[in-house]
Amino acid sequence: MDSFDIIIVGGGIAGANLGAELAAHRRVLIVEAERHCGMHATGRSAAFWLGSYGGPAVAPLTLASRRFLAPFLRQRGALHIARDVSRLPEVDGGILLGRSALEDRVPGTRPDWACALFEESCADIDVAALHADCLARFRQWGGTVRTDASLVAAERQGNGWKIRLSDGGEVEAGVVVNAAGAWADAVAIGCGVRAIGIQPKRRTMVQLRVGQTGLKDLPLVIDAAESFYFKGEGDNIVWLSPHDEIDSDPCDAAPEEIDVAVAIHRFEQAVDWPIEAVERRWAGLRSFSRDRVPVYGFDPSADGFFWCAGQGGFGIQTAPAAAKLAASLLLGEALLEIVGHIDPELFSPGRFSR
């Protein structure tokens, strides 16, 4: 039976980043249920780095991650648009734009959209390249990846875990890291650990070809009321979401026709660009804890069980700093300077048992 110091369940962006931080210090195995790592939330994200996204607990992780994400970023900028200036968010360094300036940035904006706030720092994230880089660094440090192998059950024995996998194999590890995204609660239950209420929510994306050109460098356009967002992906191509969060079981998510229709309706209320074709549609699951703050830390009632879950829609933009924070907690070391100002208690799974 193969033996490791740490087994990470889930090879998406959270597990891969954490693995890259740990592999130089411990023998680490990543197990992934699918044929390839990152096939669900990570592989379906229209990810962008947006400093104002996620709330006050998440923002320090987002800001600390930017320097590590720099090679994978493409500057875009974001426009929060509103029908009334009172609906615009408060964003440090945001630039208030009136109707005329909004029309200059997004020609064809419907007349009732009166104003916008421009957030210059917003950037696209090359998720595929970032994820591949994490896995490459993990392997370079001696980490092992095992695909087509989900955790079936695990039992605490002595100072470690005996783990049974779906491919028929068994492994031993001192620590189980639960980085299973939408399946995080199911993994906990499989280990005999109490679920903490990680809820997957479906997010729909649509690729449209429209009768408007010059869109490739369009800013990310976000309704201040959070009912849609879209961004240019080609000269006359946009990616659009209705900003939905629909409760779901853990699954291979697929878009519902009603959600696609809602997205298109909201888009047509925002701009007058004719829709020529719906070229693609897809959906992914974003998983939230009960208080919408990620969970990083050892379970207070289960020795050697570490949570790395509940990253919601901000898991990719926070992944580098979150992995450094989680690695320090897991190894029992002082926080690295880059995350030393962040209070790890904010993310402790123990907050759900108080």
TrEMBL record:
Residues 5-329 form the FAD dependent oxidoreductase domain. Keywords: Oxidoreductase. This is FAD-binding oxidoreductase. One of its GO terms (molecular function) is oxidoreductase activity. Pfam families: DAO (PF01266). It comes from the Bacteria. The keyword Transmembrane helix does not apply. InterPro entries: FAD-dep_OxRdtase (IPR006076), FAD/NAD-bd_sf (IPR036188). The keyword Nuclease does not apply. Signal peptide: none annotated. One of its GO terms (cellular component) is cytoplasm.
